[in-house]
């Protein structure tokens, strides 16, 4: 059988497996895939929603959007263009996307490079190095986000100070809330042998000296952080035109698209979501971007310290828990 003649279900199942490497809030991986002979369907899994920090499911849906884009990247690397219907079933809000194979497009080197970035991409919570990401690289990341219909607003120095105040406020509010702490403890720390959540190995051993504080996980991890700062970091707000589930799904696609090209270009991306979780700080961010749209996530862009070992990869759930194959 030639490469092009492989059964659609096999191609779709592989794409769903590749989507498992997508980033998600607290590594909750709140998605389930259903593979049939004709299509790939993406569902939100509410059991893995952060019901305290994310009651509306904004971060859950953004996370599922990253998985959706990863699946599309995998299909494109197999030489397929896809047709994607978002939120195809008005009666089932958990049914987030229906993907079918459209045309054979041939495999481009660009598609292969993006697909390779899927296995390399990871979250690095150490401070960035003193070398800023180049304007050119940031321009490429912005264009990848724009191609998904969204935008990055790059923060000025003053706006970064506003972000720092908002991030520190959000962390204080969340860590003082017992329900938030209980939810955090459920997802964060330990070795995460079951494949979900954030292990100690990727959490800094002490809070780095940065202007904008990274998320307070309320426990020290084992990731060594050097003396670096975030002076050379660029902070950006990912934003778009609406604040509904379809917008959040697009935000996830844009986050994935931007993060994968950033990975190719050696730019480290660190999401900040506590400022999005609290309505008050989310409103502050709206003002920071002059009400031009709705903020979905803040991103720190920079270059990782090339001399020190980076964090290991965060584990993933076994595919049997996230993919169901139903073929004739
Ligand atoms: C919507 C979203 C929000 C996130 N928020 C944060 C955050 O506030 N702080 C943080 O350190 N990492 C954050 N992350 C990164 C995740 O923790 C990370 O993607 C996950 O643990 C999987 O690890 P990996 O990216 O290294 O594969 C976020 C990721 C997503 C997709």
Automatic annotation (TrEMBL):
Which SUPFAM superfamilies does UniProt cross-reference here?
FMN-dependent nitroreductase-like
Q: Taxonomically, which superkingdom?
A: Bacteria
Question: For this protein, what is any one GO molecular function term?
Answer: oxidoreductase activity
Read off the InterPro entries from this record. Answer: Nitroreductase-like, Nitroreductase/BluB
Q: What is this protein called?
A: NAD(P)H nitroreductase
């Amino acid at each position: 059988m030639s490469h092009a003649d492989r059964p659609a279900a096999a191609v779709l199942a592989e794409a769903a497996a590749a989507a498992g490497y997508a980033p998600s809030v607290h590594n909750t991986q709140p998605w389930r895939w259903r593979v049939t002979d004709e299509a790939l369907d993406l569902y939100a899994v509410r059991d893995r929603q952060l019901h305290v920090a994310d009651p509306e499911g904004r971060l859950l849906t953004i996370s599922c959007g990253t998985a959706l884009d990863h699946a599309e990247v995998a299909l494109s690397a197999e030489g397929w263009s896809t047709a994607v219907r978002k939120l195809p079933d008005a009666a089932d809000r958990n049914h987030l996307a229906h993907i079918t194979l459209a045309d054979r497009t041939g495999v481009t080197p660009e598609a292969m490079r993006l697909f390779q970035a899927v296995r390399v991409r990871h979250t690095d919570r150490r401070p960035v190095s003193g070398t800023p990401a180049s304007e050119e690289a940031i321009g490429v990341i912005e264009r990848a986000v724009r191609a998904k219909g969204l935008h990055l607003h790059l923060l000025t120095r003053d706006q970064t100070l506003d972000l720092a105040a908002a991030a520190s406020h959000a962390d204080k509010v969340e860590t003082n809330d017992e329900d938030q702490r209980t939810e955090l403890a459920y997802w964060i720390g330990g070795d995460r042998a079951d494949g979900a959540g954030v292990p100690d190995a990727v959490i800094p051993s002490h809070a780095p000296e940065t202007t904008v504080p990274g998320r307070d996980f309320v426990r020290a991890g084992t990731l060594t952080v050097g003396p670096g700062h975030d002076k050379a970091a660029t902070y950006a707000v990912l934003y778009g035109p609406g604040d509904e589930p379809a917008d959040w799904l697009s935000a996830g696609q844009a986050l994935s698209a931007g993060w994968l090209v950033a990975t190719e270009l050696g730019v480290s991306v660190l999401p900040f979501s506590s400022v999005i979780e609290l309505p008050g700080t989310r409103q502050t961010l709206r003002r920071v971007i002059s009400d031009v749209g709705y903020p979905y996530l803040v991103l720190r862009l920079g270059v990782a310290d090339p001399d020190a070992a980076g964090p290991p990869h965060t584990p993933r759930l076994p595919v049997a828990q996230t993919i169901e194959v139903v073929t004739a």
